[in-house]
Design a protein that fits this description.
It is built from 20 helices and no strands. By secondary structure, it is mainly alpha-helical. The protein has 2 domains: about 190 residues, Growth Hormone, Chain: A; about 220 residues, Up-down Bundle (Growth Hormone, Chain: A), CATH 1.20.1250.
């Protein structure tokens, strides 16, 4: 376990430094170009690459020793950070001030691929947990991993803003290169107890999506679990474009930003709880209970235009979010053979990550042209306006309520389905 915590710490530092650089580059690119198109393209391409790369990264994790896969990830990030730094310092003045400037996108793409390469570590860490953590402690350890991931993103957001403001992007890049190099050196001295790479006759050394699908289909209820998480991500995609506009309809920008910094600690609270108490003897049932609470919160938090109500509900939501990821990780680690876990985790990542961006793109026009008019000048004003409220914020609130109702119905139906009963039996066998 001591070695495992060294690997977890190494991963935390790696992810933290990588995300700090990525956030800093996003902020910097917007300030340089004064165009939201820059950040929109960067975010969109990032989500697309995460979705597509999961299949490939899962195969890498399965086909190489886990330490070698982690080393490959870290070295790729280090080299790409180094190349991007060279592009940055050799660029003539004014090279990054326009969206149409090729050098800007060469620089951004190098940073982007460095960040994407680090995702190999996330998949590898899930399989390392299977190898190094006893089965009866994996749920708690998955809670620790969730806490580490949440902490890294929270700290990275703050550090990136301060570092860019007071030191500039050049120093951010230099520190990124130095830390990435230190991560590689530290990883050299860490050991993962693998005597070799496990292969079955039906598990060829290649991407093998068909074989991965066959493995998932052969475990009753596992496909249903992945699609359930994917469906939840479809619904959660509603929050990406609408939560900020709704919050800003209640409080000023500086208050909203401060609130999120505080409410984000809920993710850590949830992760710490799992690390101490675990997920219980029936993690699949825990997943459904958590989802029921999530969708009830989604309905309740906007019943009235109250920032106090919204804040309390968001904090509770953040506290229970780690349970969703930890449950899926724990179940896969037990029911999927180790030699296939990398590809299954990668497959799940690709499928599940595809959901939120699709909803985010669709829900904006739906809210703008249907729900907001309904609660500003449409029939909604007459039907429920006297107690629900009117205006653009109330139209957005109606979207959240509809999302919560749909999510609650799907969760209750899924809970009673045969697929999930079979998966629960497989897990407990």
């Amino acid at each position: 376990m001591k070695s495992y915590f060294h690997i977890l710490g190494n991963t935390f530092i790696s992810v933290l430094s990588t995300v700090v650089v990525w956030f800093a580059v996003i902020y910097w690119a917007y300030l340089q170009t004064s165009s939201v198109m820059t950040t929109a393209i960067m975010s969109g391409v990032y989500l697309l690459l995460v979705m597509l790369s999961g299949f490939w990264f899962g195969a890498i994790v399965d086909n190489y020793k886990k330490k070698h896969a982690m080393m490959l990830s870290s070295i790729a990030t280090l080299v790409l950070f180094g190349m991007s730094t060279i592009v940055f310092i050799t660029a003539p003045e004014g090279s990054f001030t326009s969206v149409t400037e090729p050098r800007l996108w060469i620089f951004v793409v190098l940073i982007l691929f460095a960040v994407i390469a680090s995702n190999i570590r996330s998949i590898a860490l899930s399989t390392v947990t299977t190898i190094m953590v006893p089965e009866d402690k994996r749920d708690k350890m998955n809670g620790v991993v969730g806490t580490v991931n949440g902490l890294s993103f929270m700290v990275a957001n703050i550090v990136a803003g301060f570092a860019l403001s007071f030191a500039g992007l050049w120093w951010v890049l230099v520190v990124g290169v130095v830390v990435s190099g230190a991560v590689v050196i530290h990883l050299l001295f860490l050991g993962i107890p693998e005597t070799g790479i496990i292969h079955n006759a039906d598990a060829p050394k290649k991407l093998d999506i068909r074989g991965t699908i066959k493995i998932i289909a052969g475990i009753p209820g596992l496909f249903a679990l992945i699609f359930f998480t994917t469906f939840n991500n479809f619904l959660s995609g509603v929050f990406m474009p609408l939560m900020d506009p709704y919050g800003l309809s209640l409080v000023p920008l500086h208050v909203w930003g401060t609130l999120w910094a505080v409410l984000g600690t809920g993710f850590l609270v949830g992760g710490i709880y799992i690390s101490k108490k675990g997920l219980g003897l029936k993690p699949l049932r825990t997943l459904f209970m958590v989802n029921i609470v999530m969708w009830v919160i989604c309905i309740v938090m906007v019943v009235q235009p109250s920032i106090i109500l919204l804040s309390v509900c968001i904090f509770v939501w953040m506290c229970i979010m780690p349970f969703v990821e930890a449950t899926e990780q724990t179940i896969v680690q037990k029911v999927v053979p180790l030699e296939r876990q990398g590809r299954v985790f990668g497959f799940a990542q690709s499928i599940e990550q595809a959901a939120s961006p699709v909803t985010a793109f669709l829900i904006g026009p739906i809210a703008q042209f249907i729900f907001i008019p309904f609660m500003t000048t449409g029939k909604g004003v007459e039907l429920i306006g006297n107690w629900f409220g009117v205006g653009a914020g109330r139209g957005i609130a109606l979207v959240f309520i509809a999302t919560g109702v749909i999510g609650l119905i799907v969760t209750l139906v899924a809970m009673r389905s045969r697929s999930y009963k079979l998966l629960a039996q497989r897990y407990n066998s």
